[in-house]
Amino acid sequence: MLQQETQEETIEAIAGGEFERQPVPASNWKGWGSFLGMYAGEHAAGTEFVIGPLFLTAGVSAFDLIIGLLLGNFLAVLSWRFLTAEIAVRYRLTLYYQLEKICGKGLVRFYNVANGILFCFLAGAMITVSATAVGLPLNMEMPQLTDTLPTSGTYVVIVVLIGAVISLVAARGYDTVARAANYMSPIIVLAFLACGVVALGQLGVGSFGEFWEIWGEGSEPFPGQIKYTFWHVVIWSWFANAAMHVGMSDLSVFRFARKASAGWTTAAGMYVGHYMAWIAAALLYAVYLRTPEAQAFLDQGLAPTVAPGPLAYNAIGVFGIIAVVLAGWTTANPTIYRAGLAFQAVLPRFSTFWVTLLAGGVATLAGLFPAIAMKLLDFVALYGFILAPFGAVIVFQHFFARRAGVVPDYAERSGLGFNPAVFWAWAISFGLFYFISWRFDVFLSFVTLPAWLLCGVLFLLLSRQWQRSAA
User: Fold this and answer.
1) What is the distance between the terminal CA atoms of the chain, rounded to a whole angstrom?
2) CA dihedral in degrees (51, 52, 58, 59; nearest 10)?
3) Residue 18, helix vs strand vs coil
4) All domains of the chain, ordered by start, with CATH?
5) pLDDT band at 92 (very low <50, low <70, confident <90, very high)
6) Burial class (CB within 10 angstroms; exposed 0-12, middle 13-18, buried 19+) of 1
7) What angle do CA 111, 115, 116 make, to 5 degrees?
8) Segment 166-212, tens digit of pLDDT
9) Is 432 exposed, middle or buried (0-12, 13-18, 19+ CB in 10 A)?
């Protein structure tokens, strides 16, 4: 036992002091201010300039968007506060090390790789967003909704440079990531607010009634998009960050919190970013849809481009370009940081600095392909659906394991390298509900919660069966 502890302390020292394989000590706990800035910066982000317009391409009505986002984001905040933050301050472990105790090193290694890669893809979309702002004064060809490959050599160079800067910031650890977010988030929030106000003026809106007349009942979805209803908006906005809250990825963040009440700070991200910013960005796109360029796309049966840089520039000029670049940075930084932790759990003897740079390289490569950003609504839904059920394993163990007669952290206690109860709980829930979504054309976010609940219940049932058999 002493040898194992010595090995873990050695690994911790090599890893750079981010406490990847031990609880965060009290000397490193942080107040709510660290999380407020980080969440406001991360979720008032460059991707909001994409997501807001994509709601319009789905033909969503004013009521469905305004009230649906109000409810869906509230459910997300509750999930962070009473699930993620509660468990994080109880154990103060990263998601990856906590899963290792439950699943075994063999199984969690595959999860960590998949999780890290998906995080990198998400960060790559944010790099794409920043590139549309940097490329604007260089007359870069902007990616279209249907583009998959890089649009030009200029686009490639800009993405690589932005990815390099973001990766270096993320590699310096949590303190640097949080500090960068705190500096940049007020600028980004102000920019989104200014964009919304300017867009209302450009639309000729002087009252709520005039706003309603313009947006009203929405429209038919654009080519290649599906129609969003009230419940599409509620469920999608709740589970847009499913991997982070019900999927427990933000255990890696809130393990630094002094109290679980720090989970309420996520409201800054949800209602500034995922509410005000999405609506402001949608208004920018509404302005663009009135231009001859956008009408030409629609006349050809094509969806007009959703390029955040030009949208923000048309509203507030150079300040818009700066805001889009900073917004991409503040979201990609913590995302690459999380991906680095995932890869570091697979490669524990490599420093967090270098594995985070590796994650940044994968994110930069993903950013070269604009399809991820242009299909962000679909990608985010799939991303949450894949990863969220693993979080149910942690949640159900924390709240129900002993009452269900299940030994907590069974893989660690028994020396098990591969816990079949976890694997089959995830595989059955994922396979069943993905088949339902595909076969009956059910919106994927609608089946995320049922898959999460089924995975948790199956984990308890299968764990009890396997543990009794082993005993």
Assistant:
1) 23
2) 180
3) coil
4) 2-385 (1.10.4160.10)
5) very high
6) exposed
7) 120
8) 787 777 665 665 566 667 777 788 888 888 888 888 888 777 777 77
9) middle
| Cβ count near 111 (within 10 Å) | 23
Alpha helices in 203-317 (DSSP H): 208-215, 230-239, 251-254, 266-268, 278-288, 292-299, 308-316
Whether 455 has a pLDDT exceeding 90, the answer reads yes
Dist CA 278 CA 375 (whole Å): 16
Written as one string, the DSSP assignment of 431-449 is HHHHHHHHHTT--GGGGHH
Beta bridge partners of 30: 257
Cβ(42)–Cβ(334) under 8 Å?
Answer: yes
In the three-class reduction of DSSP (H, G, I as helix; E, B as strand; rest coil), residue 121 is classed as helix
Alpha helices in 259-402 (DSSP H): 266-268, 278-288, 292-299, 308-316, 318-346, 352-367, 371-374, 376-400
Query: Could you count the other beta carbons within 10 Å of the beta carbon of residue 209?
Result: 8
- Report the C-alpha gap between 425 and 386 in whole angstroms: 13
Query: Tokens at residue 427, please?
Result: 């595989």
**Left, alpha or beta for 298 (phi > 0: left; psi -120 to 50: alpha)?**
alpha
Question: pLDDT tens across 141-152, in order?
Answer: 878 777 778 878
Of the ranges 46-60, 229-243, 257-271, which one carries the lowest mean pLDDT score? 46-60
Query: Is the entire prediction scored with pTM above 0.85?
Result: no
Q: Give the model's pLDDT for residue 220.
A: 76
pLDDT tens figures, 385-441: 998 999 999 999 999 999 999 999 999 998 888 999 999 999 999 999 999 999 998
Side chain identity at residue 169, one-letter code: V
d(CA 275, CA 69): 6
Nearest to 133 by CA among 107, 159, 104: 159
3-state helix, strand, coil in the chain (%, to 5): 75, 0, 25
The one-letter amino acid at 217: E
